[in-house]
């Protein structure tokens, strides 16, 4: 389910079936790494779109959390933990974060939800057909991650 | 200016008939055009979307065919992609199934589950469909997979809009 009014209507109706929530994490910076953060944000945005298509009926894809790179890591982590608390209180059984920003890798242990870190692939200058097949491959790999997690808890 | 003089009465008659005729035509022609419009309308040729799949390359094993099309969403037009599972049945007829699960809309995969070979499998809630797209009773889906109308143009597969059965 996307964060769209129509999808949310369905979500409210079929709530029991949707036990997984995904929060994309988008870094924003205006310093030297501006290009990198843009590429990361773009890639995760495309990937989460494809991922939502694959798992529409069981996941809720949230609008991403954007954060400034200038803000300290502790503060960012505290913000994310706020999100996590809210999501847990909403009875989601599985929580995932998806990002290209490797900063999150170092604080992975302090999170209850699973962190999916995908290195960003430079997709600009790429022909659409090729772009799509790359994203499909990534989604296929993630498919196993999700299915395993679901099977372990069922 | 001699014998065939046009009288004032005649002159007025001619001009009035002429102008009146134009006005009547101005009103009637659009009406006639509206009435015959459905006949002149072009048949929805563009409803079919071309794919890169050669029909000759299709086998009895369902293959994944991706296609892309322009989608108009209000003022925003975007390149959308779609997928179909395509195979040839025993009578060599091309069958194209929509991959969208009839339960809650996940994407189903052919042979996606090792325990259920030769079935379409939905990874979200374990929905199963047989090869012809019929839902297996006892699994969440309540209807069969949608079917695309298909067409062969210059050897390539063209897909229409998926229809429920």
Automatic annotation (TrEMBL), chain B:
InterPro entries, alphabetized: Rieske_2Fe-2S, Rieske_2Fe-2S_sf, Rieske_Fe-S_prot, TAT_signal
GO MF term set: 2 iron, 2 sulfur cluster binding; metal ion binding; monooxygenase activity; oxidoreductase activity, acting on paired donors, with incorporation or reduction of molecular oxygen
Keywords: 2Fe-2S, Disulfide bond, Electron transport, Iron, Iron-sulfur, Membrane, Metal-binding, Oxidoreductase, Transmembrane, Transmembrane helix, Transport
Cleaved signal peptide residues: none
Segments passing through the bilayer: 12-32
Gene3D superfamilies: Rieske [2Fe-2S] iron-sulphur domain
Record's keyword annotation contains Metal-binding: yes
Superkingdom of origin organism: Bacteria
Segments forming domain Rieske: 86-159
One Pfam family from the record: Rieske
Subunit structure as annotated in this protein's UniProt entry: The main subunits of the menaquinol:cytochrome c complex are a Rieske-type iron-sulfur protein (QcrA), a cytochrome b (QcrB) and a cytochrome c (QcrC).
Family the entry assigns: Belongs to the Rieske iron-sulfur protein family.
Listed PANTHER family: CYTOCHROME B-C1 COMPLEX SUBUNIT RIESKE, MITOCHONDRIAL
The name this protein goes by in its record: Menaquinol:cytochrome c reductase iron-sulfur subunit
Organism: Cytobacillus kochii
């Amino acid at each position: 389910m996307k964060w769209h009014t129509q999808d949310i209507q369905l979500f409210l109706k079929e709530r029991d079936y949707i036990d997984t929530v995904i929060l994309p994490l988008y870094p924003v910076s205006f310093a030297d790494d501006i290009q990198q953060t843009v590429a990361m944000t773009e890639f995760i945005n495309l990937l989460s779109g494809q991922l939502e298509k694959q798992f529409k009926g069981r996941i809720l894809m949230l609008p991403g959390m954007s954060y400034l790179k200038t803000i300290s890591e502790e503060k960012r982590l505290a913000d994310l933990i706020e999100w996590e608390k809210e999501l847990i209180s909403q009875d989601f059984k599985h929580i995932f974060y998806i990002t290209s920003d490797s900063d999150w890798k170092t604080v992975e242990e302090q999170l209850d939800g699973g962190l999916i870190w995908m290195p960003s692939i430079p997709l600009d200058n790429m022909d659409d057909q090729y772009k799509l097949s790359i994203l499909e491959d990534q989604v296929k790999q993630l498919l196993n991650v999700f299915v395993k997690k679901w099977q372990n808890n069922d | 200016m001699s014998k065939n003089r046009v009288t004032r009465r005649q002159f007025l008659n001619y001009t009035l008939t002429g102008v009146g005729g134009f006005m009547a035509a101005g009103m009637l022609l659009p009406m006639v055009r509206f009435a015959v419009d459905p006949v002149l309308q072009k048949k929805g040729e563009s409803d079919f979307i071309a794919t890169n799949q050669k029909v000759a390359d299709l086998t009895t094993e369902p293959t994944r065919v991706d296609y892309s099309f322009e989608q108009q969403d209000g003022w925003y037009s975007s390149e959308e992609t779609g997928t179909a599972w395509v195979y040839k049945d025993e009578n060599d007829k091309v069958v194209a199934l929509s991959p969208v699960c009839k339960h809650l809309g996940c994407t189903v995969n052919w042979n996606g589950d090792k325990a259920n070979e030769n079935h379409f499998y939905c990874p979200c809630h374990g929905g199963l469909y047989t090869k012809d797209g019929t839902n297996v009773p006892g699994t969440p889906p309540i209807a069969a997979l949608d079917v695309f109308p298909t067409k062969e143009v210059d050897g390539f597969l063209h897909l229409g809009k998926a229809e429920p059965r």
